[in-house]
Every structure is written in C-alpha cells, then in structure tokens.
Amino acid sequence: MTTFHLALAILALLATPGPTNTLLALAGARRGMRAALPLIPVEMVAYLAVVTPLLIWGTPLTAALPMLRPILAGLAALWVARLAFALWRMPVVESPQATVTARSVALTTLLNPKALVMGLVLMPSLHDPAKALAVFALVLPPVSMVWITLGAGLLSRTGRWLNRGSALWLAALSLLLAARAVAG
Q1: How many angstroms separate the Cα of 59 from the Cα of each of 49, 54, 62, 124, 125?
Q2: Whole domain around residue 72: which residue ranges?
Q3: CA 86 to chain centroid
Q4: Spatial CB neighbours of 3, under 8 Å, sequence gap ≥ 6
Q5: CA–CA distances in Å: residue 181 to residues 7, 43, 66, 74, 76
Q6: How far apart, in whole angstroms, are the C-alpha atoms of residue 75 and residue 81?
Q7: pTM, to two decimals
Q8: Radius of gyration, alpha carbons of the chain
Q9: pLDDT tens-digit profile of 115-168?
Q10: How many domains does the chain contain in total?
Q11: Which of 53, 102, 131, 152 has an alpha carbon 20 to 30 Å from 45's alpha carbon atom?
C-alpha cells in the first residue's frame, strides 16, 4: 500500500459514523465548535495509545492469542452500549460542559474498533510504522473538525432528538460489535 492509499483508507475509516464521531458531533452541538476543539488532541492521544502498540506488536500478538480480538470487540461493545444508555437518559437542560467530557472521548476512542483496524490491518501494510503514524496524525484532525462542525451547525438545534438519535446509533454499533465478538 502506498502512502496516498493509506491516507485514503484512514480517511474513509475515520469519516464513517462511529462512537467517537458521535461524541464529537454531540460536543459540537452542545458546547459549540470552539469549546469542542480541545477534544481533538484527546482523541489523537487515545487513538495513538492503541494504534502504536498494535502497529508494532499487534500482528504477532493476535496470531499467538486469537481470542484477543473478540475480547477487545466485546469490551468495545459494552462501552458503546453504556454510552448509548447514558445518552438516552441525558436531560436536554443539562449544562453544556457536562454533555461530552474529555474522559468520555478518551475512553470511547481507546475502545473504538477503528483503532484495531488501523493498527492491525491498514497501517502495517505500509511497512513503515513512523510514516503510517504520521499519515494518521495528519488525517485525524480535519476529520474530527468536520464532525464537530456538523454537530455545531446542523445538530445544535435538535434538542432531545440529538441525544436520542445518537443513543440509537450507538446502540446499533454496540450490537454490531457484540455480534463480531461472539462470531470470533
């Protein structure tokens, strides 16, 4: 895979709706764009904390411990289900700062299955871990800004429907992750 193809693959993966993107859009809607921007470095650090070790040691480790992938998928499913439940119950009149925290973005990103795909499938195909990580670091911020902007612009006036819609989307993702974990 070339650097350009890796960048496109990472862009496509990061741009798809998922738990972290849902939280970024929700943060944009509830906090406003400027207040949500500090979540991007949190997301970056969390992704790098997972992707870097996977990129370096992941392929041999998952080959030696094949049960590791379904266990990680199961943990991710549980976390996303918890987020869905919390969003469903969240009142609309809540303070904007309490809606999406750096901690929730960090934990969600640490358990995001996209990190597994990047660290175990996409990035190793470049055969240059440093270059793969650099490509990732260049692609993530603009994608995150798009999700925050989407939330701040289109979703900011939706009230309870934003919480409920986000909760339903996360619940569907949780079920998909659980199915993958069970399938092995």
Answers
A1: 16, 7, 5, 9, 11
A2: 3-183
A3: 17
A4: 126, 131, 135
A5: 28, 24, 12, 5, 9
A6: 10
A7: 0.74
A8: 16
A9: 988 888 788 878 899 999 999 999 999 999 999 998 888 766 665 566 677 778
A10: 1
A11: 152
